Amino acid sequence: MTTDSDAQASPRSFTDVLNLLIQASASEDPDNRGEFIEYTNAQIAGEINRVHGPKTITTEYIRRLRKGDIKSPSVNVASLLAHFFQVPLDTFDAIGGEKAERVMAEAQRFVDARRQNLRTNEQDSEPQAVAIMARAARRLSPARQEQAARYVARLEELEAMEGETLVPPSSN
Question: By C-alpha distance, which of 35, 58, 25, 2 is closest to 128?
Answer without folding.
Answer: 35
